[in-house]
Amino acid sequence: MDTSLCLRLLLLLTISEILIVIECSQDVQVEVTNCGVGFELIQHRFDTLQYKFLELSVNVMEFSEAVQNKQRSIEEQIFRLETSVAANLALVTNYSRQVLELQTICSNHDHIRNELRKLQPKKSALEKLDSPNSCTEGSDSGEISLDILNISYPVDVFCDMTTFGGRWLVVQQRVENTVSFNRNWTEYRDGFGQPTNNFWIGLEKLYQLTTHDSYELFVELQFANGSLGIVHYSEFRVGSEDE
């Protein structure tokens, strides 16, 4: 073979090897470059996930702390409510006891009032024992408490011991015109006024007096000019309300 031809072949082979090496080197560099870009992307994603994980952990811790605080607040409110309920229950118990005591006191008062009512007739009977039965038992003119049959209480009246021999029971008297005698039936039946002033004893009392004893009626009228008018009845009686 020609020497120059061999040199050309060798040169071509050498150049081919160099090209192959260069191509292989370029392929490896591209692969290495691609691997570096993928690693950086994975690292970035990992860092992002790690940040999100840390952020989530912080949120979980904050939420857990908020839940614990809320639980403590609820427990404190429950404790305060239980304390308030216990205090209110104690107040209700105390008030119930006071109400029971007041009911007992009121019951005792009712019992006492009933006993006093039972004693009232006895008291009236004792007062009537000390009361005179008529104006014949005194000697001086004045107001007395008179015991009238079928009247449950002593009646205050005025006894005149000077006019026409005295011993007169004043059943009506008008001293001045300040008190009106224009009254209804009930007032004339029961009486009104004061014995020493303008006074009317009452028809019911007159009925009881004149039914059980004999009475005279003496009427004295004094006119504005100073003159007197006198009327005397030897017998005097007043009928009952039914009559």
From TrEMBL:
Signal sequence bounds: 1-24
Pfam families for the chain: Fibrinogen_C (PF00147)
Domain of life assignment: Eukaryota
Record-linked PROSITE patterns: FIBRINOGEN_C_2 (PS51406)
Entry keyword set: Signal
GO CC field: extracellular space
Residue intervals of the Fibrinogen C-terminal domain: 126-243
Name used for this protein in its record: Ficolin-2
Originating organism: Culex quinquefasciatus (Southern house mosquito)
Gene this chain is encoded by: 6045101
